[in-house]
Design a protein that fits this description.
By secondary structure, this protein is mainly beta.
Length: 550
Amino acid sequence: MSKKTIKQRIAVVAVSALTAGVISVASAPVANASTGVFVTAGVIVNGTTIVAPTGTGTSQTVTISAGSTVSITAVAGTDGEGRFIVSGGTITGSNTANDSTSILNTSTRFVYGNTTATVTFTPNAGESRMVISSYVDTSNTDSSTEAAELVVTIKSGAVGVVSPGDSFVSVVEAATTSDPSNNVDVTAGRSVPIGTNGRVNFLLKDANGVELGSTAVVTTTSTAGCLVAATNSSTAFLSASNSTAYGSADEVFVARAASNTPATCTLTMTVNGVALGTKTITLQGKVTKLEVVGGQAGVANAYASSTVNSGVSSPAFEYNAYDAAGNVAITISPTFVNTASAAFSSAQSVSTATASAAGVGSLTCSGAARGAGQFQMTYSNNAGETIKSPVYTANCFGAAVNYKASLDKASYVPGDIATLTITATDASGNPTNDFVYLGGAAADGTGTANAPAIAGSNLTAVTTPTSTDTFSAGKKTYKYVVGSTAGSYQLSVDLPKFNNTTYAQTAVTVAYKIASSGGVTNEEVLKSIVALIASINKQIQALQKLILKR
C-alpha cells in the first residue's frame, strides 16, 4: 500500500437505504482526527435521535430494517490512514477504490487515502447485528487499536405488515390535522360537542419501523349509533364501516347516526385485515337539562355581592347542561332570567368550561339592596327546543363588618375534637357573602398583615387558619384537638381585618373547660369539697338549735 503525505481524519455520514425510502444520519466534523469517532449527533434515524459518543473506544448505535444498507462517508484528512472493518456484513460498494494492496479480503475491510470515500455496508443474511469499526493509524495493519464503532441492529419484522406497537393512533380534536407521535388520546377529543364529529388520526408502520405504503387498506367499524368515514363530509357518512387506502387518508371521522342524539362510539380498526386497535369517542347530543351545581351555589345559598375582594374570580355558582345520556355539554351559554329581581340589577353567564361544570354564572346586586332574589336559566338547543332550569334563590349580601365566635361545647375531655364556628355579618346584619377573605394585607387575601389570630391553651388546630380562608353562608369553622391539662380557659378569636370603631368590632373570647380523664376537674373536686363542708356546718348548726330548744 502506498503511503500518503497527506494523512486522514474521519467524519461520518451514515445512511440507511431502506426498501421504502432512505434514512440519513448527518455528520459533524471529527474534533480529533486520531480518534476516528463516528459523529451523528442530533440526527433522526427511524424516529430516534442518535447521540454521538465522545473520545476513543466508544460506540453508537443505529437500527435499520432487514434488507437495508448503511453508508459511511470518510472525509480525507492529514492525521493518519483511515480504515473501516465490518463484522456481520460486507462492503458492497464505494465511490473510490480500496486503497489496500496488502490485505486481500477487501469485502470486510476498506482503506482510503487522501480522497473522500463513501463506503456502503450490507448486513449478512440472517444477521441481527452488524458492527462497523473505525481505525486511524500510520500504517495499514490490523494491529492498531479500535478508535470507535457503529453498532447496527437489524430488525427482522415482516415488511409491509402493520405493527400496532410501532404505529401511532390517537383520538384528536376535529381541527387537528397532523399525524400523531404517540398513542395518547387528546382529552378534549374524547367527548365531542353537539354539531361536531369525532376524529382519529394514525401513522402506520411495520415492525421494522418503516411506514406502510399508500395501498394499505384501513378498515374502521363502529358500534351502533355511529357512522364512520375517511372524510369529514356530510355526504360521506353512510354506514358503520369504512375502508380506504392509506395513501388517500390518514384519519377517520365518526358521526351520529341520528341527528342530535348522543352516542358512544367504539371504533375497531384493521390494516389489510390485521388488527390495529380500538378507540372510544363520546358524541354529545342536544341539551335536555340545565341545573346549578357545585361552586358557591348550594342552590339556596348562592351568595353574591357588589362588594367583593378585588382579584376574586370565583363565580356565584357553576352550572351544567346535560344531554339525554347524562353527558355534560361544554361551552353552553344559557340566558339568565331574574324571576324575582328586587335584589338583583342584572345576571350574567360566562361560558367558560371548568373541570367540573359547563360554565359559571355571576349575579350583580342592585345597589345597596340586600336580600334574596330568584333566577332561572333558559337555553335553545340544536333542535330549537327551549330548555329551562329550575328556579333558584340566591342572596345578595355585603362584605363582613362584624363577627362572633362560639364552640360546640362548653366542656371537653382530653382527646375531644372541638369545633369553633366564626359567624360574620354585613352592615345590615345579613350573613356575609362568600367572597370575603378572613384576612390578608392585599385584596386577594395574601400577605401577613390582618392575618387571623386564633389561639387557646391545650387546643391544637387540625387545619391552621389562613388569610385566604373564606366564609360559606356567613360561617367559617375550624376543628381543634383538645389537650390533656384540665382547667378553665379562654379561646381568643381575632380577625384584625374587620376590627374597627365604626361597627364596634374587636377580638372576641370564648370560654371553655377541659375536664380530667375521669370527667371531673381539680377545680370541680375542690368546689364539691367546699360545698360539702358548708352543708355539714349547716347541719351541725341546725342540730345545736334543736338541742337548745329542748
